[in-house]
Amino acid sequence: MASGVFSRTILLCLLALIAAPAQQPLGMIEGIVKDGTGLAIATAKVKVRHLTTGQEQEQAVTADGLFRFPALAVGAYSVEAEAPAFAKWTRPSLSLSVDQTVHLEIRMEVAAHTEVVTVSSEDAAEVQTTSVALGNVVPQRQAVELPLNGRNFAQLGLLQLGVVPLTSGVATHGGVRRSGQAYSVNGQRPESNNYLIDGARMVNRVDGGFAIRMPVDAIEEFKILTHTAAAE
User: Fold this and answer.
1) 3-state SS, one letter per residue, for 178-193
2) CA gap 163, 188 in Å, rounded
């Protein structure tokens, strides 16, 4: 089954096309806090801050040094970690895309004096290790600047591996029931595609396509999951 994920601009909240109605079109930051020897620091606290909105969240790690911030709005974040007797750890900027889980392994050093350890984005790669789903994010610049016939955002799905447009025969077969469908994914019928907007299903029951066509200027990110989507 194919699906996609969108997030809309600030005032328009979030637009999503994903594989199942329960999954949210947001991102997550998780990880573990360790000392220089690799042991978990159970006394640490981690804080994330959205650099655009200024919204902050803070939590204490578990006894195993683990932390998780689910359901975060997409965008750039700063991450800080503090623990008694350890130097403060800071990452000034971390980019979080729609439907992405960023895993961090934070290493804190014992502080002899007041000091701060700052990690740049080049030093810590944003690797998603918690999902095997296949898909790719199309950013806002591509959504707005790429030539689209009729400014139809669904055509952006054709940038994904395994996604092909409907042939003329498939598009016309069945008449109106194929008029709103945009593509086929990995050999699946176009009726297998599922779409959500703000967490609600947006499939047109007449033709199986999407029920609401958003203008490309209102789309911040676009993502289509083409294989092994999450169970939820």
Assistant:
1) HCCCCEEECCCCHHHC
2) 10
Question: Which band of pLDDT confidence, cut at 50, 70 and 90, is reported for residue 82?
Answer: very high
Distance CA 2, CA 223 (A): 11
Q: Which residues, listed in sequence order, are joined to residue 225 by a DSSP beta bridge?
A: 3, 135
CA 156 from chain centre, in angstroms, equals 16
Q: At 111, is the secondary structure helix, strand, or coil? A: coil
pLDDT of res. 129:
58
The CA-to-CA distance between both ends of the chain, in Å, stands at 13
Q: b/e for 8-36, b at 16 or more Cβ within 10 A?
A: beeeeebbbbbbeeebbbbbbbbbbbbbe
Cβ burial of 103 (10 Å; 0-12, 13-18, 19+) is middle
Give the residue, 216 or 17, on which the prediction is more confident.
Answer: 216
CA–CA dist 231, 226 (Å, integer):
14
